[in-house]
């Protein structure tokens, strides 16, 4: 009798379970489906994600051997500004753009550019599509502001692609699954989307002085209308529409929000220097710190101070490892490997001299007296700083055979010497 009761109870339990098996439906709390992106907090988080993805342009590393550090050099090599100082370095990212015999269809820099841009585009499309979702209940002004920021990044990414590749696939809706039938769109169609996106952005984004602030009153490094006008001007120049480019620039110039820095300011105003150099000193770069000349300051925090301050920390072997700003590594010289030279903050820390300034920049670009050519902005001279070295305090003689002028003692821009004591 007791066994029969147990069996009946078990059957009842199984029946109840079979009718209420929806508890098996998994709810993901650490991943967002684009169709579920329908509140202002989530949409703003997605916009911050776009900024993070854009910042990878400046922080891409490619572990474990940091080969991706050469990514930034690819955009300077072959121009009037810089060249690969030592092709024998065999930088797998930079060298193909010095020696085209090494440029293949699987070039990592070209591949990364494509992925970087379309990742921004697809996530922008997800945000824009979410705003049209009936579940998204926001005031129209709030929707337009969010759409303006998403379209700013989409327009920027497409303008980058068209500048580099010409005709590319035009995608304006989110792609959530595999797709292999993309075709290149006509340039007229691509250019129209770029202009439409950037005009919408400059119309609906706040001005630089009205960007949102955090609880401490510090302005966020978010997109504003002048940024959209600047990228729009660049797009018009590419299209050969110089009059429209000039008009877009005039909007920024005549706004009254920006001005050339012509007076000393900031944390080292009482030390030797000049106004141009002041803008690139750590602690002076942001608008809140007195920099009224820069239109777009991409704010990045040291992760030892702010968790995730430089973007994602992705594991080695992934396609988009984001580390920390790479400009100093690329532009800075390896002075610290020259005998008699030690690492120091006044020289910008540890550079690795992947690229170097051309003779044209060093000897022909600037007129006499041009502040941008001062010793505070272009370093041509080095002085032995190792107190144990016999020539301590003396100027490094570049004609000395023992001095390496290929990678170690080379002229460099000081723009990226913004030394962070926590770095």
Summarize the structure.
This protein is mainly alpha-helical. Helices cover 35% and strands 2% of the residues.
Regarding CATH, which class of the largest domain? Mainly Alpha
The H-and-E topology, N to C, reads as HHEHHHHHHHEHEE
Mean pLDDT comes to: 86
List the domain count as a whole number.
2
CATH architecture of the largest domain: Alpha Horseshoe
* Number of DSSP helical runs: 10
Compute the gyration radius: what is it?
26 Å
Spatial separation of the terminal alpha carbons? 76 Å
- Total strands: the figure is 4
Side-by-side strand order of the widest sheet: 1-2
What fraction strand?
Answer: under 5%
Largest sheet: 2 strands, antiparallel
Shape: globular
Structural class: mainly alpha
Helical residues, percent: 25-40%
């Amino acid at each position: 009798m007791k066994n029969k009761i147990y069996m009946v109870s078990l059957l009842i339990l199984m029946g109840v379970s079979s009718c209420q098996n929806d508890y098996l439906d998994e709810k993901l709390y650490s991943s967002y489906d684009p169709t579920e992106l329908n509140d202002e907090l989530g949409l703003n988080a997605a916009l911050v994600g776009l900024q993070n993805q854009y910042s990878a342009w400046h922080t891409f590393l490619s572990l474990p051997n940091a080969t991706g550090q050469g990514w930034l050099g690819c955009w300077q090599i072959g121009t009037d500004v810089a060249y690969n100082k030592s092709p024998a370095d065999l930088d797998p990212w930079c060298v193909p753009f010095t020696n085209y015999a090494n440029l293949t269809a699987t070039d990592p820099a070209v591949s990364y550019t494509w992925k970087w841009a379309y990742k921004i585009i697809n996530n922008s499309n997800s945000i824009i599509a979410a705003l049209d979702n009936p579940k998204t209940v926001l005031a129209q002004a709030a929707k337009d502001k969010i759409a303006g920021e998403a379209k700013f990044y989409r327009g920027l990414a497409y303008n980058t692609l068209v500048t580099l590749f010409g005709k590319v696939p035009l995608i304006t809706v989110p792609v959530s699954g595999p797709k292999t039938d993309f075709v290149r769109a006509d340039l007229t169609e691509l250019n129209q989307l770029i202009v439409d996106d950037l005009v919408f952005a400059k119309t609906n984004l706040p001005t630089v002085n009205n960007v949102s602030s955090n609880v401490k009153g510090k302005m966020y490094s978010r997109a504003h209308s002048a940024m959209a006008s600047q990228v729009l001007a660049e797009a018009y120049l590419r299209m050969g529409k110089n009059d429209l480019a000039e008009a877009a620039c005039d909007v920024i110039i005549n706004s009254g929000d920006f001005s050339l820095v012509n007076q000393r300011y900031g944390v080292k105003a009482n030390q030797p220097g000049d106004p141009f150099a002041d803008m690139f000193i750590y602690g002076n770069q942001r608008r809140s710190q007195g920099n009224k000349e820069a239109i777009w300051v991409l704010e990045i925090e040291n992760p030892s101070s702010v968790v995730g301050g430089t973007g994602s920390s992705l594991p080695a072997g992934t396609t988009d490892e984001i580390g920390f700003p790479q400009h100093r590594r690329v532009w800075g010289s390896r002075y610290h490997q020259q005998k008699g030279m030690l690492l120091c903050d006044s020289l910008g820390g540890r550079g690795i001299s992947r690229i170097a300034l051309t003779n044209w920049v060093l000897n022909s670009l600037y007129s006499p007296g041009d502040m941008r050519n001062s010793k505070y902005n272009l370093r041509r001279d080095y002085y032995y700083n190792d107190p144990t070295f016999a020539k301590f305090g003396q100027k490094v003689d570049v004609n000395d055979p023992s001095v390496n002028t290929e990678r170690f003692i080379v002229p460099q821009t000081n723009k990226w010497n913004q030394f962070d004591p926590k770095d």
